[in-house]
Amino acid sequence: MNQVGRSIPRVEARAKVTGRAEYIHHFTLPHMLYGKVLRSTVAHGRIKTIDTAAAKAHSGVHSVVTASDIMKIVPHPYYGPAFHDQPILAVDKVFHVGQAVAVVLAEDPHVADAAVQLIEVEYEELPAVFDEVEAAKNEIVVHDELKPAGTFTDLKHLVGRKNTNIALDFQLKRGDPDGAFAAANRVFEHTFRFPTQLAVSFEPFVTVGEPRADGLTLHTASQMPSFVRLEIARLLGWPENKVRIRVPLLGGGFGAKTYIKLEALVAVLALIAKRPVKIAATMEEQFYIINNHPATFRIKSAVSDSGRVIARECEVWWNGGAFADIGPRVSQKSGFTASGPYDIEHVKIDSYEIYTNLPPTGAVRGFGIPQLVWAYESHTDIIARDMGIDPVEFRRMNILREGRPHATGTDMRDAAIDKVLDTIADEMNWKIPLARGEGKTRRGRGIGIGIKASISPTASVAIVNISADGSITLSMSTVDMGQGSDTIMSQAAADVLDVDPGVVKIVHPDTDVTPFDVGTLGSRSTFHMGHAVRLAAIDAKKKLEALAEEAGLPKGTNYPPSEIFKKRYGMQAGNVIGTATYMPTYVPPDKETGMSSDVTPNWMIGGAGVDLEVDTETGHIRIHKLINVVDCGTPINPEIVRTQISGAAIMGLGSALSEDVHTDGGQITNASLADYKIMGIHDIPAMKNIAVDAVQKNGPFGAKGVGESAIFAVAPAIANAIDDAIGVRLTHLPITPEAVLRALRIKENRPIEDDE
Amino acid sequence: MNQVGRSIPRVEARAKVTGRAEYIHHFTLPHMLYGKVLRSTVAHGRIKTIDTAAAKAHSGVHSVVTASDIMKIVPHPYYGPAFHDQPILAVDKVFHVGQAVAVVLAEDPHVADAAVQLIEVEYEELPAVFDEVEAAKNEIVVHDELKPAGTFTDLKHLVGRKNTNIALDFQLKRGDPDGAFAAANRVFEHTFRFPTQLAVSFEPFVTVGEPRADGLTLHTASQMPSFVRLEIARLLGWPENKVRIRVPLLGGGFGAKTYIKLEALVAVLALIAKRPVKIAATMEEQFYIINNHPATFRIKSAVSDSGRVIARECEVWWNGGAFADIGPRVSQKSGFTASGPYDIEHVKIDSYEIYTNLPPTGAVRGFGIPQLVWAYESHTDIIARDMGIDPVEFRRMNILREGRPHATGTDMRDAAIDKVLDTIADEMNWKIPLARGEGKTRRGRGIGIGIKASISPTASVAIVNISADGSITLSMSTVDMGQGSDTIMSQAAADVLDVDPGVVKIVHPDTDVTPFDVGTLGSRSTFHMGHAVRLAAIDAKKKLEALAEEAGLPKGTNYPPSEIFKKRYGMQAGNVIGTATYMPTYVPPDKETGMSSDVTPNWMIGGAGVDLEVDTETGHIRIHKLINVVDCGTPINPEIVRTQISGAAIMGLGSALSEDVHTDGGQITNASLADYKIMGIHDIPAMKNIAVDAVQKNGPFGAKGVGESAIFAVAPAIANAIDDAIGVRLTHLPITPEAVLRALRIKENRPIEDDE
């Protein structure tokens, strides 16, 4: 019986609903100290003095740690996946409000909280820059010199570059865009902006460091145990196997819990204190640790009279904040899909990662794609409307079809862009004209569609261990952060071994014993780890068959494992260990042209259709229907796929309608969930979540990832529907009632007064 | 450079001397309860009532648990490796003083200690039997019916046997012993006794049970994590993978920490309380949990006039105490070597495992061999002396030589009995007559030699994981209990992979992730796990070579692993996992005749030579020189081999000279280390510890085990030396000054009065 394709309940559900699921926030160790971080109050400044005397004198304080203490253990205390630019604690300078400057350690977390207020820091403020387009002019420079990390060899050419905020300029050129634009009759150009947004995990960042006889263990809420191990080992100058990273379940990750967040700080604090140390960030602190990239996107298209997009020019400025984190990869990996899911002969892309004095930005669900789709799907809609072509028809004319080359030169395979588009149109009854309504409320509909490439080339390793009674243990470093990977992987192993998924026990990431995986991110787990688990299970199956042969059991007969073990070892004893590494083939984009013949193992496709009404008196919108359609190949667990589509779409809604980190001179003015509005249960409209019938031929069991696809196009579909309803075009997110009203008044030539 | 054969320092030494080594006695969990056991005060009785009211009412007590509570979770709460005869807590009856009857759980261990005194148990006492020879008459029967466990299929014929204390009668017959004895001129017969002794671990038994979302974890000081997992899973009716056993370093094991000790009780308590539970036995409690087998050995030999042993008859009564534990295996596995390392044509062995009302006895260093060697090497010496043949010469005439069949019919291979004997003689300057001394002090010397077969057939599995920087993690379920296995296995893996053993990190037993191993016992680890680690390292090496090929590196070149990984994965990523299972070939002894063509993968040989003086006025002896010689094949770490020889010999000395658990009507009267005397540093004589130059051809790197060999022959060598010095023969251990004096007075016909 196939275990793949069934909507079995999540394997971790019982532990969660009974309160027995393990999270690091619950985790304590004997003799543990709690750390509280003092954060910078200025956006750019030189630290003149740090006076820790009062904090140290506070009753119950164990110690106060600053960069000078850290540098006794880590002489060069800078980390980062792309650039080694982020200090564990501020060294001499601060680069953004909220940067970690000092830490109080105490046995009681409330004591640490109180004492941290007693630290006095004197800053000499420096000029700061916050806007990405402004910063790209390099008039105010954040860092004196670029420090690429060397992990990504394609950044080597940036080593030592001075006086620039441009951390990376990804360029792609295909065909002759300049010529095409010069020859074009119809050229459209628009600029869109995407604001700073937070990846709201209900479990904030939390890490416990534990000095051990044989090294250091970090118990941490991370999506990347294997990377954390590597980076901490590098910082400490230790071999990998002296650093152990344990990750239980996460209360959400959404990309924010990638790379190093609290781990470097906690690691060093534990080594300094020679005791276990825990730091648990507050909800407020999350806003200062990592955010989504704000971005400005100038997009220009040349279109034929018949409505074919001939050429497209994209210029994207990504606001990376004060430290690069994985930003350069966002600007590159997303950058090359900036021209969208369209078959365009002449393409030019410039995608800039820009340093500013905002808190750092990095990976958040979608990894830059929502920023791009917001722009290119708004732009596409404007063109279609302007040319009087139905937006669905316009897209049908221009989308990339099977076998056609993407802008990078990679031929599209198993990318059901057409099917996703058709399904949205069908579900929207697109052919039937919409009753627009009368009076103050106007109805409209809009669609959007986006694509994303997978993160590549990355390896995943799995171990499938069959015990003597036939029960199975699966060891892997994939993190279940709510997306259901434990369940999916149980199904994958069970399918190969022809057992019930319930007999598969998952060993959660523990880098001493669960093998390497680059990380749980970029919707890569189902594809990459799914393959590794499948192959490891096949390896185990083969070894079990060999054991049966050793035991003298006739070949081809299907003995239960318990009988094979008993026969071979004379008692219930032994086990069989299957292992496998999976890495897809990949051809990295050429550094000069951005071209690649095989840029991704698969394409994720996600689209949305929105039917809404706008209250023209208040600017409020009410969504009647939100259709979310993806191509995720063949779902391994259809119900989990539906919840992933739903979750991503809801996050997309928040991003479209309300989420906006407000800053004022680098200060965040709404750093709390009271002021920063995410979608609540009453904000969620009627939704339909659909995975089209598709097969990812090179995927495990025909599957590919689905964690992000449904977030891509919600915002432009809404903006397009608003335009359809009331004929105004919004180019900035979020689409608040105020923004709608303001746009409407501008259109009607009666702007809102600021004091209205 | 070879890593095998080098005396590198122990890999865990630094953790131990800095106090950072992990032991379960230190281990605590949040919300943990401490359990204190109420133990039976009678040796055999029916439980009429258990009044727990006062204990329950004691302030701070969480609960009081008796068998009836346990049976709600485990309806048939009996465990044991050979027989399912031992209840988790006494059900209706008690069978020995110290049997666990009830448990108090409290958050404070001192509260539990105090409250346990308040439990009132009323017993109806039943007749009890303590002596093994007496018990074999079956006049008083301990258990109504035998309950073989079924794990050992060769015990099946005992199922349901009633009214007997004989748990197992191992019989071996070779040639025509009856005919040979009838025809013999010279027949010698003696009976020897070996007392109850304790395996003194400085870390007493300790277990922490932790209910988890996905099952139950036991953190326990056990030599057998894989067995504990199986047995707890069986008791609970769970699959193996729901039970996780974690074992850090042990503070000694010596065989006592095998099978189930506190684990079943703690497992069930944790499930009842739904909280973590810890029970740490006191030193006193160790005496009631498991002891070494007391034994009575009647040995009879027919000897030719020239001094060849023609026939031998052995009858061994093993006092198994009230529960079988592994006793039946002791009587069988040791039983078949009861005729010693001698080439004897006609052999008859009866080896009886007997139930009595003493605390249970089981595996202790040597697994029955010291009891046998005590008898057969005393007996051998008596014969030689009686016949006027030099004891070394007598043995030379009779020992088993390479290729000759052992009593079981197995041909001896790689058993350097002759070399061990010659080395002892050389080291003792045996050819030079000893100056006997005059006056009250007399000098003598003696030797002894013994053999032991390995525990078979048993499997060991290992995982060798190479990280992207070349550092190595070795996962295995071998327990380092002070014998140095972590170091040995690091050397084995390092040798194959051509790295420094320091780069190998050992993952201590954790049955979720470290693979199956039958247990750390019977000196089996170096041979069995040594092979598994070697083979797993070879597997990893091959996979690394394949990775190099995938990466396009030229074949045959010796790239460092870090370069191979970086080349293959484009960054520091991935790992390589080698695995292997090792199980030696083995032919179990025939149930009827006890014969086997291949009874053991290797033979362990150990001998001792003693040069001592006896004070004829006080009975005190002073050992001038103790020579310990073993064949352990080729040592992997010569220094660790020497410390193993030394440690075993010191334990043998204690066993010979002072260790004796005194009982009176089943009550132990010296259950403390103040009254039960083990060797202290000032008791240890000048020793020389030698491993003869040898190769175990089928062993890993030519090695075999050495944990027990040097314990075998210390006692008979001392007794033989005393006979040599003062002409008295001691047949009971320990050889206390009182025993010597009493024997001397008897010889001189002036017995000591009891009130002297």
Q: How is this structure best described in words?
A:
Two copies of one chain form a homodimer. Chain A contains 19 helices and 29 strands. Chain A is of the alpha+beta class and 756 residues long. A seven-stranded mixed β-sheet of chain A has the order 3-7-1-14-11-12-13, with helices on both faces. Chain A has a five-stranded mixed β-sheet with strand order 9-18-17-16-10, with helices on both faces. The N and C termini of chain A lie far apart (66 Å). The mean pLDDT of chain A is 95.
Q: How would you sum up this structure in a few lines?
A:
Two copies of one chain form a homodimer. With 756 residues, the first copy, chain A, is α+β, with helices and mostly antiparallel strands.
Q: What is the straight-line distance between the termini of chain A?
A: 66 Å
Greatest interface by residues involved = A-B, 61 and 62 residues
The 3D shape of chain A can be described as: globular
How are strands sequenced across the largest beta sheet of chain A?
A: 3-7-1-14-11-12-13
Low-confidence stretches of chain A: none
Mean pLDDT rating of chain A: 95
CA gyration radius of chain A, whole angstroms: 27 Å
Helix % of chain A is 25-40%
Our estimate of the beta-strand percent of chain A is 15-25%
Class from secondary-structure proportions of chain A: alpha+beta
Number of strands of chain A: 29
Q: The biggest beta sheet of chain A, please?
A: 7 strands, mixed
- Quaternary structure classification: homodimer
Summed up, the helix count of chain A is: 19
